[in-house]
Amino acid sequence: MQSKDLVQLAEKFGSPLYVYDAEKIQSQYNRLTKAFSKVEKLRVNYAMKALSNIAILQLLKEMGSGLDTVSIQEVLLGLHAGYDPEKIFYTPNGVSLEEIEEVSAMGVQINIDNLSILEQFGTKYPNVPVCIRINPHVMAGGNANISVGHIDSKFGISVHQLPHLVRIVENTKMNIVGIHMHTGSDILDIEVFLYAAEILFDAARNFKNLEFLDFGSGFKVPYKKDDIETDIEELGKKLSKRFNAFCIEYGKELTLIFEPGKFLVSEAGFFLAKVNVVKQTTSTVFAGIDSGFNHLIRPMFYGSQHQIENISHPKGKERFYSIVGYICETDTFANNRKIAEIKEGDILSFRNAGAYCFSMASNYNSRYKPAEVLWMNGEGHLIRAHETFEDLLKNQIPLPVAMATV
C-alpha cells in the first residue's frame, strides 16, 4: 500500500491508528511454506501473541494456519475465531496446573515446559497427548529480552535434565507426541538455528511415539531499507534436508512445525499518528505526536527501531527530529532521526508495527487505545473501533454514595 492510502485512512478513521496490509501477511505465509516445500508434513502455527485481533486470526485461518497460544484467553480467542481445537497449540509458561487442565479439556494440544507440572499432569492424565518444551541452552535473539533458549532463561526444560524428564515419562506412562524448542527472536545466523535443531533431534531420540517436532520461530525481518534479515530460503533448504534425514532415521514421517509471529505480521503493520506540536529547544527539535508508549511501547521497552516517515509531506527537505509522545514521563520513539520536514498536523507513519505493538498497548494515563484497520483488496476495513470513555469505565465499580460522602 502507498503513503496516500495511509493518509486517507488516518483522515477517515482518525489517529492514532494501526493499519495492517493483508497482502503482506499472505505473502509472508506463502514465502515460509514455499521455503519448506520439500518437507512432506509442514504446519505453520501463527504465534498470536504478536497480534491477536480476531480478523487477523481469521485471515490466517483461511490460509491454512494453526495457532500458537500462550494463555487460556488466547485459546478462547482462537476458538472464537473459528479454529478447530486440534489446530491450536498451547505453550504457557509459569501457569497453574488448573489452567493447563482446563485448556487440555478443550481438546487443544498442550506443551509443558517444567518438570513439576509434567509429573503432576502425567500422573493424572497419562493418556492425554503432551508436547515437551526443551531449553537447548543456545543464546539466540536480537537482545536479552527476546532470547529465551539460553541457560538462564525461565523457559523450557533443560536438555541437561533429560534423564529426569525421561524417568517421569516412564514412571507415569504418559503420551509424549512432540518435542518443542524456541531460542529467541531476530535470529540472523541460521547456523545457530541449525545447531539448536541438532539438540532437538538428540532429545527426540528418547521418545518413540512422536508425531511432530516444533522448531519455534524467531526469524528476523528487515526494519529499514537494505536491512539484514533471516535467509528463510537458505534455512528452508538446509533444515528440510536435515529434517527429512532425521525422519528416515526415526522410522516415521514426522510433522515439522513452526510458530512464526513477527515474521508474518511485522512488516504488514503501520502505526499512524498526528503531530500535535513541533517544539524547538536549545539543542533539539521535538515532534510531539498524539500517542505515546501506551500505544507503541517497543522503542522504550527494548530499544526497537521503527522507520518513521512523514507521509503527509514525504518529499520535504529532511531535518533531524526527536519523535516523542504525550505520556507524562520520558516517552521517546526516536532521537535525532532524519525525516522529511514536519509541520503540526502532519501524519507520521511508523513501519514494522504489526507485531507486539497493539498487543502491548495499554490505557496508561487513562488514554484510549487506538483503532485497527485491515487493508484488503484496496480498501480499509475497520477491525477494532477506537475506545471511548465508556470503555475506560467498564468493569470499574464506584464507591457507594454513602461511603463516598464520608
From TrEMBL:
Per the UniProt entry, what are the Gene Ontology biological process annotations, in alphabetical order?
lysine biosynthetic process via diaminopimelate
Amino-acid positions noted as binding substrate in the UniProt annotation, renumbered to this chain: R298, Y302, E329, Y356
- What cofactors are annotated for this protein? pyridoxal 5'-phosphate
Query: Which residues are listed as membrane-spanning?
Result: none
| Alphabetical list of PROSITE patterns matching this protein | ODR_DC_2_1
As stated in the Swiss-Prot or TrEMBL entry, residues carrying the post-translational modification N6-(pyridoxal phosphate)lysine are K49
E.C. designation(s): 4.1.1.20
| CDD domains in the record | PLPDE_III_DapDC
Q: Which residues form the Orn/DAP/Arg decarboxylase 2 N-terminal domain?
A: 23-266
Q: Which residues form the Orn/DAP/Arg decarboxylase 2 C-terminal domain?
A: 18-354
Q: Which UniProt keywords apply?
A: Amino-acid biosynthesis, Decarboxylase, Lyase, Lysine biosynthesis, Pyridoxal phosphate
Top-rank EC class of the record's enzyme: lyase
| Keyword Lyase among UniProt keywords | yes
Keyword Transport in record: no
Q: Which reaction does it catalyse?
A: meso-2,6-diaminopimelate + H(+) = L-lysine + CO2
- The UniProt annotation places pyridoxal 5'-phosphate binding at G218, Y356
Q: Which residues form the active site?
A: C328 (proton donor)
Q: In which pathway does it act?
A: Amino-acid biosynthesis; L-lysine biosynthesis via DAP pathway; L-lysine from DL-2,6-diaminopimelate: step 1/1
- Output the Gene Ontology terms for molecular function: diaminopimelate decarboxylase activity; pyridoxal phosphate binding
Q: Kindly state the subunit structure of this protein.
A: Homodimer.
Q: What does this protein do?
A: Specifically catalyzes the decarboxylation of meso-diaminopimelate (meso-DAP) to L-lysine.
Similarity comment: family membership: Belongs to the Orn/Lys/Arg decarboxylase class-II family. LysA subfamily.
Protein name per Swiss-Prot or TrEMBL: Diaminopimelate decarboxylase
